[in-house]
Amino acid sequence: MSERVIPLARPAFDERELEAVRAVLDSRWVVQGPKVAEMEAAVAELHGARHCVAVSSGTAALHVSLLAAGIKAGDAVFVPSFAWPSAANMAAMCGARPVFVDCLPDTYNLDAADLRARIAGCEERRWGRPRFVLPVHEFGLAADMDAASAVARAFGLTVIEDAACALGASYGGRMVGTLAPMGTFSFHPRKAVTTGEGGAIVTNDDALAERCRALRNHGQAVVGGARDFVEIGPNYRMTEIQAAIGCVQLAKFPEILAARRRIARVYLEALAGCGGLSLPAAREEHTWQTFMVVLDDGLSRAEVVARLAARGVQAGPGSVAGHCGAVYRERFGYARADLPVSARLHEQGLALPLFGEMTDDDAAWCAAALREVLG
User: Fold this and answer.
1) Residues 176, 177, 181, 186, CA torsion sign
2) pTM higher than 0.70, yes or no?
3) What is the pLDDT confidence band of residue 29, given thresholds at 50, 70 and 90?
4) Topology alike, domains 15-246 and 253-374
5) pLDDT for 228-269, tens place per residue?
6) Which candidate in 35, 72, 191, 252 is catalytic?
7) Residue 27 host element (H or E)
8) Averaged over 32-48, what is the pLDDT?
């Protein structure tokens, strides 16, 4: 067993976060106050958006966005299978039917051609009214929004971006989150910027922003100078403690992002030509929330993970394919073979350590260990 251990992920915290939390505790204002407003302004400015609405998690951001966009029971919501199942879960909780779409094998993002086929198949099978598509910018690489949006327009679907992994990413010179009426972000500990848990919605639509703000706070709004309940909404408020951490993290974001991109370059160079795996698509705009390779068929990921662990390298699955989950197999009749690319990424995807405080030597060590294991 190696004495050197490189974790899969680690938030970039220091004394600045501690001081920010201490200031909030000293203020005694700990929920939905000035720090939340400050963080919202910073996220909106980063993405060139008119509004940002902070919430308690990335999943909460998806839920609020769907509610604000008018989701109804009987709607069909199209989501890429190879992604954390938050969007599918929230659609189902709203009484809609999640319809999984297969992904591309190199970008791991939604396949627009498959989206078109799934929409047509949904209508033929009478699975519900096609209403929404939620492209996921998987691991920080923007999905092909031109292609996805063209399909959405052809069928009259509303697009909501799931940019949970892609804070600060861009597509065609525009920032993610602003390529559709709404975009959602997550500040989970594995993200480049974390508040522990937390999320946000960005939009340039004044009415949608107002509705999202009401929905996150029990459906409250100020009407005629007095508080009233204008929606039926959950409590998804962000705390001042979370936002204080987030403000510090956002100030560090250029440094964190540069480090992640540097580590990804080390991996790409060190693993070029390595047998037994496929490398991810590398684009200049990629923000690298995760660095995932795909092991060749026939290789046991569990065995590779165990052998890497013995060498001090923590690794694991990149993400999951929603259609392979028991609830979606049992409730909606999905089978592994229905979305073969997503199923393969689910089974053979291997995430390597990646975090802002990694050194080039750490990344080179991890790459050398993987080469040795696959040797």
Assistant:
1) positive
2) yes
3) very high
4) no
5) 999 999 999 999 999 999 999 999 999 999 999 999 999 999
6) 191
7) helix 15-27
8) 97
Per-residue pLDDT, 222? 87
pLDDT value at 218 more than 80? yes
* Burial of residue 1 (number of CB atoms within 10 Å: 0-12, 13-18, 19+): exposed
Residue type at 98 in one-letter notation: P
Mean residue pLDDT of the chain comes to 97
Task: Give whole-number Cα distances, 319 to 14, 103, 120, 144, 281, in Å.
Answer: 28, 13, 27, 19, 16
| Residue found by looking up tokens 């939009």 in the block | 203
Q: How far apart are CA 104 and CA 133, in angstroms?
A: 16
- The CATH class that applies to domain 253-374 reads alpha beta
**3-class DSSP state for residue 106?**
coil
Q: Find the helix packing angle between 240-270 and 15-27, rounded to 10°.
A: 170
Q: What are the residue boundaries of the structural domains of the chain, listed by start?
A: 15-246, 253-374
CATH architecture group of domain 15-246: 3-Layer(aba) Sandwich (3.40)
- At residue 223, the pLDDT reads 86
Q: Which residue has the tokens 């037994």?
A: 276
Give CA separation, 326 vs 134, 224, 329, 330, 335, in Å.
22, 49, 5, 6, 10
Q: Is 72 an active-site residue?
A: no
β-strand partners of 101? 80
- The 75-80 sheet, strands edge to edge: 51-55, 199-203, 182-186, 158-162, 129-133, 75-80, 97-101
